[in-house]
Amino acid sequence: MRVSTRFSDSIHLLAYIKIYADTRLTSDAIAASIETSPVVVRRLMSKLRQAGLLTTTPGTAQPALAKPLSQISLLSVFYAIEGDKPLLAVDPKTNPDCIVGGNIQTVLKQYYQEAQTAAEARLAKTSLQDVVDNILVEQAKKDARQ
Amino acid sequence: MRVSTRFSDSIHLLAYIKIYADTRLTSDAIAASIETSPVVVRRLMSKLRQAGLLTTTPGTAQPALAKPLSQISLLSVFYAIEGDKPLLAVDPKTNPDCIVGGNIQTVLKQYYQEAQTAAEARLAKTSLQDVVDNILVEQAKKDARQ
DNA sequence: AATCGTAGTAATCAATTAAGTTACAGGAAG
DNA sequence: CTTCCTGTAACTTAATTGATTACTACGATT
Predict the structure, then answer these.
(1) Which of residues 68-127 of A touch B (CB under 8 A)?
(2) Cβ distance B71 to B127 under 8 Å?
(3) Do residues A119 and A87 lie in contact, with contact meaning Cβ atoms separated by under 8 Å?
(4) Which stretches of B22-134 are assigned E, i.e. beta strand?
(5) Which of A15, A138, B46, B71 could form a disulfide with B103 if both were Cys (CB 3.0 to 4.6 A apart)?
(6) Taxonomically, which superkingdom (chains A, B) (predicted)?
(7) CATH fold of A6-145, please?
(8) What is the ipTM of this complex?
(9) Domain assignments of chain B as residue spans, ordered by start
């Protein structure tokens, strides 16, 4: 499978809005940072808006975080963007007349869900504020090297 | 992305080999249970063999588990099949001249790894023996209903 | 109000990946 | 030596992602 970068790009987008709050936050400018197209950015913002993480104004470059960064967890971004897709997928079509094929979904679904829940619990512990803080720390390291 | 069912199918395959040990374990028979093609089954078995989980004999329908089921964790199967692919992918191509674009990978990679490690820790706790046991329990429930 | 720049979104395209299929070389066993 | 099977490569098909194009509608500025 081609791995989706939507989740990663959404975090990028939100961090950008915070760090570059005093610039013109057009979808073009944000797209230039992510190195994608403005339409992709607007699509992601649409999802984030529907999830209540972002407010936008049609016609105006004015995206704004709907909550303090510290109250937006990576998990809430994940749900906003990929909430309907499991990290691990059970093969939905197996032979029901076989002992294995007829029961594997029920069994695996449960173990997969537990693994995903464990990952989600970790994502819930990190907020976008942590991400932004770390980005600034990394940037400071780079600056110090020069 | 179309979500891969290789991991799920591999667990299926190994459970099948155990539960139907006294039947002819041709790739055709296993494929019929997974409802896929024999070639797909042989491809999965090839990976499992390379990972030391399975032994096979060219020309003969004789796949056998290389270790007791209780010593094969879901995680080891996951590594055998999808070990090189992360559950969450960081966008590898962002603008390095931007504070966000230039540091997001470093920062996110770490959080993503922690989430994946949490999921893997959960997968490591479950063995194929657990899966087989559960499959048989589910089957017994079905039988009791009839 | 006219215009310009922007958001929102649908529709289409291109690239990638997964799984299915075909084909065939080679081993094992009767 | 014939038959059945595994192991693999090559190709096809289907699904998904992200990029692109095109358009409508909104808002600010003049």
Answers:
(1) 74, 85-95, 98-104, 106-108, 110-111, 114-123, 126
(2) yes
(3) yes
(4) 54-57, 60-65
(5) A138
(6) Bacteria
(7) Arc Repressor Mutant, subunit A (1.10.10)
(8) 0.91
(9) 6-145
